[in-house]
UniProtKB/TrEMBL annotation:
This is 7,8-dihydroneopterin aldolase. Keywords: Folate biosynthesis, Lyase. Pathway: Cofactor biosynthesis; tetrahydrofolate biosynthesis; 2-amino-4-hydroxy-6-hydroxymethyl-7,8-dihydropteridine diphosphate from 7,8-dihydroneopterin triphosphate: step 3/4. Belongs to the DHNA family. InterPro entries: Dihydroneopterin_aldolase, FolB_dom, GTP-CH-I_C/QueF. Its EC number is 4.1.2.25. It holds the Pfam family FolB. Residues 4-114 form the Dihydroneopterin aldolase/epimerase domain. The lineage of its organism: Bacteria, Pseudomonadati, Pseudomonadota, Gammaproteobacteria, Chromatiales. It is an enzyme of class 4 (lyase). GO terms for molecular function: dihydroneopterin aldolase activity. Catalyzes the conversion of 7,8-dihydroneopterin to 6-hydroxymethyl-7,8-dihydropterin. It catalyses: 7,8-dihydroneopterin = 6-hydroxymethyl-7,8-dihydropterin + glycolaldehyde. It comes from Rheinheimera muenzenbergensis. SUPFAM superfamilies: Tetrahydrobiopterin biosynthesis enzymes-like (SSF55620).
């Protein structure tokens, strides 16, 4: 199976467990992979035959910024379920980084893989 991916998609949103985090925007970075068959798109050179990564990025950003959340785990799960339900893919990988969370670390994050039932 082939993969369409987006690396380090930046989304600024209200995210965090602590009270001080609920009034500010913080940066999340996302790596997203969607398993799909790209052969028909390649054979026809037609965007309508594949998953448009610009549409995916816009939809994911819209979802994450729609409401504040506490955990990056919830962000990852919500994004994975959206991708599986709205796009022609049977398996997705979602990694969410919160790079400004820990001053003593380059980044923190969570990574998940989800398949359609
Ligand atoms: N596993 C997690 N641990 C923590 C999270 C999280 O989303 N998942 N969040 C926080 C705080 O919001 C932190 O980022 C504030 O700097 C702490 N641990």
């Amino acid at each position: 199976m082939d993969t369409i991916f987006i690396k380090q998609l930046q989304v600024d949103t209200v995210i965090g467990v602590y009270d001080w985090e609920k009034t500010i925007q913080q940066r999340l970075l996302l790596d997203i992979e969607l398993k799909t068959d790209i052969r028909q798109a390649a054979a026809t050179d037609n965007i309508g035959q594949t998953l448009d990564y610009a549409v995916i990025a816009q939809r994911v950003t819209q979802l994450i910024t729609a409401a504040p959340l506490e955990l990056i785990e919830t962000v990852a799960e919500n994004v994975a379920q959206l991708l599986l339900s709205e796009f022609a893919t049977t398996e997705v990988s979602v990694t969410v980084y919160k790079p400004d969370a820990l001053p003593q670390a380059q980044t923190v994050g969570v990574s998940i893989v989800r398949r359609s039932n």
